[in-house]
Amino acid sequence: MPPTDKELIALLQENDPLGYEILVEKYADLVFRAAYRVVQNEQDAEDIMQETFLSVYRKIGKFRGDSKFSSWLYRIASNAALDLVRAKERKEGKDTQLDDLTPDSEETFELADKESLPTEETLLQNESLERVREALDAMPPKLRAAYLLYMVEGLSTPKVAESLDIKLSAAKLRIHRARKFMNEYFA
Amino acid sequence: MHEKIYPQLDAYFRNELPQEAQIAVAEHIADCEICRKSLEKREETRLLLRDASEKPLQPAGRLRLYEKLNEERKKRGEKLLKIPVKLIAQAKAKGGAAAGVVGDIAKAGGQSASRVGERSGQIVHTMADGTKSVGETALDAGKKSAHHGKDMVDEAGQTMLDAGRVMTSEVADVISDTIEHPLKVVFAPARLAGKGIKAGARTMKGSAKIAASGVKGTVSVVKGGLDVGAESIRQSGETLGAMIDTAEGVLDERNKVAGTIGDGMQKVEEAKPEYDE
After folding, report:
1. Is A125 in CB contact (< 8 Å) with chain B?
2. Fewer CB in a 10 Å sphere around the end CB: N or C, chain A?
3. Which residues contact B193 (CB under 8 A, 6 or more apart)?
4. Mean pLDDT score of chain B, rounded to an integer?
5. Closest chain B residue to the Cα of A43, Cα to Cα
6. Which of A17, A40, A45 sits opposite B79 (nearest CB)?
7. Is A148 within 8 Å of chain B by CB?
8. What is the three-class DSSP state of A125?
9. pLDDT tens string A151-179
10. How far, in Å, CA of B206 to CA of B200, rounded?
11. Is A65 left (phi over 0), alpha (psi -120 to 50) or beta?
């Protein structure tokens, strides 16, 4: 029977190699996925995955278990991925202030009115995989990370906020903006 | 019941409802086709977004993660992680299969490029033949037109000459007759006018002949033009045919290469783990 996260954390904190072997087998896929969602590039996602596991190796002694272990891992990976995207954008001279601004009055109204946007089931029902891939690729990385946690992992907005280490209002705003982006893309 | 449950489907799909409500929705779904279909649609959309946004971690990537962690542990003199034999075998098999596939694709691509090159050469050849043939037809038509042009000029010259000659001779006869028979002077202008009308009629007849010759020449020129046009169309048709053949060939080659890539992906996907002795 595989160990629970609590048992795994104990093994890691004792620096037992078995703990790391279990960690890789249990969480490498999740971490790779979290990174890939943001960077949309296999090589960068692999680098971020390695960096995340090295972070665990260095910081596990400080993990107090205030949040779920998987959420902690997810947060390290997606933050590392967003850092990489920011660094790349800075290098290319792009504006990185994308989506953490206060919502304007129109957005506050739209956020309150859930019916203002058609659902993804309606929006994407006749779209090809390739077109959806292109749309996600064109979406700003911060929005994409929140949107896919919400839509694919099926996380609630508070869980999205926790996974990305952002405020609940920021999580809601990112998901809303991502949905708006998809609606405009497929309009 | 349906009106009460339907708005809760989203929360049910996200597993966010309290346990009791979650069970109530599940029971309703078993009997309600509308709700069941709605949930199926949500799942299809979720899978579409998942497939569009994810790539699986390859065995080689997982293997490199083990190696990276071991590199760090080695620096610190700590006990190394045991890398699963199965993972090494999978990574090795995929690597070998991928190398083989790259070779297959390169080979298929090279063969296709060669065949496409050959077909392109054929198009150039067909176009050269076509240009030559159209040129020859045009030259022939040009010669015919020049011939008819010459006929027309000759005809015009001859007609004018005849009309002039006849008229001069007839006018001379009238004048001579008038000298011999002075009484005829009274009728001479009318006779001269009559001769003039006759000469005019002859000239008209000659002009009609010139015109007929011109029409003949024009018909010949038009026919020549049509010959050139028809030859061009025939040759263009052949070139177009060769181009369509080549386009079909390129598509065929592309499909062959795509097939090789597809087969290769399948081979990589199905690569059996390789274990070292």
Report:
1. yes
2. N
3. none
4. 74
5. B61
6. A17
7. yes
8. coil
9. 998 888 998 998 888 999 999 999 999 99
10. 10
11. left
CA separation for the pair B221, B138 (Å, rounded): 10
Interface test with B, best of A11, A21, A155 (most B CBs within 10 A): A21
Q: Same domain for B37 and B80?
A: no
Q: What are the residues whose beta carbons fall under 8 Å from the beta carbon of B184, sequence distance 6 or more?
A: B177, B178, B191
- H or E element that contains B130: helix B85-180
Residues B64 and B92 in one domain: yes
A42 part of contact set with chain B, CB < 8 Å: yes
**Considering only CB atoms, which chain B residues are within 8 Å of A45?**
55
Distance between CA atoms of residues B263 and B103, nearest Å:
13
Question: Would you say residue B88 has pLDDT above 60?
Answer: yes
Distance in angstroms (rounded) separating the CA atoms of residues B202 and B205: 5
Size of chain A in residues? 187
Going by C-beta distance under 8 Å and a sequence separation of 6 or more, which residues neighbour residue B197? none
Q: Which of residues 23-62 of B touch A (CB under 8 A)?
A: 38, 41-42, 44-46, 48-57, 61-62
Report the CATH number of the A5-91 domain: 1.10.1740.10
Inter-chain residue contact A24 with B62, CB threshold 8 Å: yes
Q: Which of A21, A28, A152 comes nearest B50 by C-beta?
A: A152
**Across the interface, do A129 and B52 touch by the CB < 8 Å criterion?**
yes
Residue B81, both tokens: 């992680």
Give the H or E element holding residue B259: helix B188-270
| A132 to B49: CB separation less than 8 angstroms, yes or no | yes
Which residues in chain B touch residue A57, judged by CB atoms under 8 angstroms apart? 69, 72
Please compute the mean of the pLDDT values over residues B175-186 and round it to a whole number. Answer: 56
Task: Assess whether pLDDT exceeds 90 at residue A181.
Answer: yes
Is B277 domain-assigned?
A: no
Answer whether A116's CB lies under 8 Å from A110's CB. Answer: yes
Owning domain of residue B241 = 57-270
Fold of A105-185: Arc Repressor Mutant, subunit A (1.10.10)
